[in-house]
Amino acid sequence: MVKRTVLVTGAARGIGKGIADAFLRAGHRVMIADLGTSPDWNYDLGGDHALSETLDDLSSLGEVDSVDVDVTQVTSCQRAIQKTLDTFGQIDVLINNAGIVDSGPIESFSEATWDRIFAVNVKGIFLMSKTALPQLKASSDAAIVSTASIAGKRGSANLAAYCASKFAAVGLTQSMAQEFAPFGIRVNAICPGVVGTAMWLDHLMANQGAAAFDNRMADMMPLGRPQTAADMGQAAVYLATAPNVTGISLNVAGGFEMN
Ligand code: NAD
Q1: Under 8 Å between Cβ of 186 and 143
Q2: Strands across the sheet containing 249-252
Q3: Where do the structural domains in the chain lie, given as residue ranges?
Q4: Spacing, Cα 100 to ligand 1 middle (Å)
Q5: CATH class as words, domain 5-194+228-252
Q6: Distance of CA 133 from the midpoint of ligand 1 (Å)
Q7: pTM, 2 dp
């Protein structure tokens, strides 16, 4: 196996932590990146504290370091990429995983919330991919994997901004796959089904508890359980290393979404 350097955004917790864990177990070097200070949002985001705890948790698995990033700010993206280069000397795989959700009817949905969701979930992928491109071009085995969603395959009432942002992530994935193919850079996305992270437990099913979440997912999912961060890690390692796969948005959703 060739050891690769992997930069994972939104990796202080949740799916991003699971992806970082999977790459480390596969023998790669990993830079975990997340917000330093968190802006106000309808649930607590990750941040310095979560990032340093995750760094502690993962450090026994291999070569790993951490960096603050706000993927909506180009100078912050540049600093995160520079720190990755200073630490590991190269970037071969970029995982655009940072993301946020809010829900509610369009009638009362605020413009500021719409803009923030698009800034993180869509512009963040554009800025990180654009900024990392020179390093990815220099790599002999480069890949981008973005965390889209099954919400990028099917719209839902009260989730218009989130679904539209994830449809955009799928479109961006296909466009970058076409554009970067001549450089040998493969570009794919994961479409998770439902993972019991802050998005669900602190927002979409807030105050209902983990047992209610598990019961609902056992009923909802054809394969009878919610998805896990480890499921997403396995998919991310596959997509980043499959030599002849590009432009796909892979459902990892227990059969809940099949298109
Ligand atoms: P999470 O809230 O636990 O993790 C998201 C991380 O992104 C947080 O640590 C947060 O601090 C970070 N983040 C937010 N804004 C950022 C910014 N501007 N710059 C850098 N980092 C930022 O939630 P999660 O479920 O682990 O979400 C990870 C990804 O998976 C997101 O893109 C989300 O949309 C997607 N997703 C989640 C589910 C699910 O069921 N949990 C399903 C489909 C897709």
Answers
A1: yes
A2: 64-68, 29-34, 5-9, 93-96, 143-147, 186-192, 249-252
A3: 5-194+228-252
A4: 5
A5: alpha beta
A6: 22
A7: 0.98
